């Protein structure tokens, strides 16, 4: 964690222009795709949560979200959180999300939602293992064709995750008293529904299983879909289409993505979602179907 980095509410036009620059540096966005300063100001002045991280005078990250309403439920929609490349891995994104949680709690809301690419292992690890989100929703090609450096070339499929910020589950995750399980913890109760192999130095998907009746499932994903795409676009598209079918199928059957496992195996990293067929209330109470070895 960088002690010189401070996080404060974005208020000035200079703050909002700095956030525009961060978007470009963090994601390689074209000017036309960046959320502009005038709209950032409108969000900040009308119930949104817009905070920026500075290292002395250097803008290094931000978080952006808006009040939202769907099916009669008020919640906060977190549209963006970003940290410039040279400041990643220093806990800044985590601090930004904690700040966002604090401010949304002050607004009297208990739920924050956002989307992300489910095949980006680092993001999955952050969202599930560190923050304690859950997921029941999968969207195909959510943003249409995207032109930034991270997403170009693939359908923009997304998880829409739920961060129940008042729940016991989230409180325990943030305090470190709700550890994620290991593969060994799950070996007697979970079925792995994705078969993979290593090709061209990357892990690729061979087959998926759609007829499992196991209460707990393991869904393997690549270390990073962007890395797979950079090696072979067809292999990356195969990951996207097969996991799309799998997540949609099991979410329809009442499974919830509840946690994430990441392990190093030789020179490669293996990543697994844990899906549990249960109700949301049990998950938010902090219940789990496994025992720790």
Care to describe what's here?
- Helix 1 (13-27) packs across helix 2 (37-44) and helix 7 runs antiparallel to helix 8 (233-252).
- The chain has helices spanning 13-27, 37-44, 92-106, 121-131, 168-175, 183-186, 225-231, 233-252, 280-284, and strands spanning 5-9, 49-55, 58-70, 73-83, 111-116, 134-139, 158-164, 190-192, 194-199, 202-208, 216-221, 255-265, 268-277.
- The strands form 3 sheets. It has a 7-stranded mixed beta sheet, with helices on both faces. Strands 8-11-13-12 form a 4-stranded mixed beta sheet.
- It is globular.
- The chain has 293 residues and is α+β, with helices and mostly antiparallel strands.
- The protein is built from 9 helices and 13 strands.
- Helices cover 32% and strands 33% of the residues.
- It starts with a strand and ends in a 9-residue tail after the last helix.
- The longest helix has 20 residues, at 233-252.
Summarize the structure.
This protein has helices at residues 13-27, 37-44, 92-106, 121-131, 168-175, 183-186, 225-231, 233-252, 280-284; strands at residues 5-9, 49-55, 58-70, 73-83, 111-116, 134-139, 158-164, 190-192, 194-199, 202-208, 216-221, 255-265, 268-277. The chain contains 9 helices and 13 strands.
Give the topology, please.
Layout: E1 5-9, H1 13-27, H2 37-44, E2 49-55, E3 58-70, E4 73-83, H3 92-106, E5 111-116, H4 121-131, E6 134-139, E7 158-164, H5 168-175, H6 183-186, E8 190-192, E9 194-199, E10 202-208, E11 216-221, H7 225-231, H8 233-252, E12 255-265, E13 268-277, H9 280-284
Parallel strand pairs: 4-5, 8-11
Antiparallel strand pairs: 1-2, 2-3, 3-4, 5-7, 6-7, 9-10, 11-13, 12-13
């Amino acid at each position: 964690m960088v002690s010189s980095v401070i996080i404060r509410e974005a208020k000035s036009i200079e703050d909002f222009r700095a956030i525009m620059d961060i978007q470009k540096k963090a994601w390689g966005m074209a000017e036309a795709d960046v959320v502009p300063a005038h709209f950032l100001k409108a969000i900040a002045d009308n119930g949104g949560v817009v905070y920026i991280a500075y290292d002395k005078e250097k803008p290094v990250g931000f978080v952006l979200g808006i009040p939202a309403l769907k099916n009669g439920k008020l919640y906060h929609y977190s549209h963006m959180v970003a940290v410039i490349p040279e400041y990643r891995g220093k806990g800044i994104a985590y601090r930004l999300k904690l700040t966002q949680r604090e401010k949304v709690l002050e607004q009297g809301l208990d739920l924050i939602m956002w989307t992300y690419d489910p095949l980006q292992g680092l993001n999955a690890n952050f969202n599930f293992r560190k923050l304690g989100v859950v997921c029941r929703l999968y969207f195909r090609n959510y943003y249409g064709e995207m032109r930034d450096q991270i997403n170009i070339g693939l359908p923009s499929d997304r998880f829409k995750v739920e961060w129940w910020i008042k729940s016991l589950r989230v409180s325990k995750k943030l305090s470190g008293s709700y550890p994620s399980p290991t593969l060994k913890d799950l070996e007697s109760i979970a079925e792995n529904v994705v078969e993979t192999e290593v090709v061209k130095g990357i892990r690729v998907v061979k087959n998926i299983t759609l007829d499992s009746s196991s209460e707990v499932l393991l869904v393997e994903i690549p270390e990073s879909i962007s890395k797979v795409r950079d090696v072979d676009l067809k292999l990356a598209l195969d990951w996207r289409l097969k996991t799309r079918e799998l997540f949609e199928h099991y979410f329809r059957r009442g499974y919830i993505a509840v946690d994430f496992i990441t392990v190093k195996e030789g020179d490669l990293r293996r990543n697994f979602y844990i899906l549990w067929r249960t109700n949301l209330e049990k998950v938010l109470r902090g219940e789990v179907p496994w025992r720790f070895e």
